[in-house]
Amino acid sequence: MTTTPSPLPATPPLPDASDEWLRVDQQICFSLHAASRAFNGVYRVVLKDLGLTYPQYLVMLVLWEHGTLPVKKLGEHLRLDSGTLSPLLKRLETAGLVRRERSARDERSVEVRPTEEGEAMRRRAVEVPRRILAATGFEIDEVRALSSRLHALTTALDKAAAEGA
Amino acid sequence: MTTTPSPLPATPPLPDASDEWLRVDQQICFSLHAASRAFNGVYRVVLKDLGLTYPQYLVMLVLWEHGTLPVKKLGEHLRLDSGTLSPLLKRLETAGLVRRERSARDERSVEVRPTEEGEAMRRRAVEVPRRILAATGFEIDEVRALSSRLHALTTALDKAAAEGA
DNA sequence: AGCCATTTGGTTGTGCACAATTTAATTGTG
DNA sequence: CACAATTAAATTGTGCACAACCAAATGGCT
User: Fold this and answer.
1) Is the pLDDT of residue A40 over 70?
2) Domain A24-126 - what CATH class?
3) Residue closest to C20 C1′ by Cα
4) Gap from B34 CA to D19 C1', in Å?
């Protein structure tokens, strides 16, 4: 808001400028955090009919697009590790939407495949994107532009985190 | 990714237009979700010295800016309810950063106030925003623009969720 | 063959997010 | 004053995210 172009003091102990930085920072991290949770809330409503949570829906999306995948590949697509996926997939299996079975060729690998019921859900899921887009009130191109910026942001952040800063 | 107009390698037993929607959708929800987690990862690294998690840092930010607040107000600033804040604040209290005490005027209310140690941490926290900004590789104005769009998005999504769709 | 680093999932523990329920204090109304 | 409605926190239960650790399988190496 009132972000006057401060002269960037060299890491001061605690003058007024630092307050300003802390406020601005709040807008950076905050807006993203809040938007993510707000999205989650809308998905919660929209996906209630399907009986899926948002991350479960993401898993099904990947399976619908790529078919059967080992847990590893699934994790790469979604940037999730086994600590998150294992219990999630177990719940999807309990719900009858996927099956998990050890690969015959590599006994370390577990193949995740959608069941008949899981594939059938795809037909009911096609309306989800439209409802979400409607909830945003954004034009499709605007959403695409935003996604593009966020993707660039994610790439940069991942790189920074990997470099330990 | 490669949004080339590929002839859709007939993996799935389903029409074409719906697949397109499901792919686009993935970019909408996905990029935000991924960016949020990527941010979290960078904050994890940067905040490790302070011994704070990202949500704990957000709580301290609000307290530094507004001083003592009841849990309710804190939740309004952060869009978090008592189910999230109660255990979080308990951990902050154990860490010696805040104190919680029942309001004398309204015994239902719990006032959260930063301790001396909590206030002192503010001095060490002023460098956080700069490090985060550096990690994004974005210009400050670009970040501001993005935040603005995300804020608008959040407002729209909240409204939609409240209306049950 | 035997050995060892790597790969792949799973498990455990900590913490956040949120819905639903519970308890206590306050406020409004007759 | 008594009593219903409201409000503020805490609690409980489910699920996601991730670090740290563990076990089994694989593949390369001598």
Assistant:
1) yes
2) mainly alpha
3) B83
4) 18
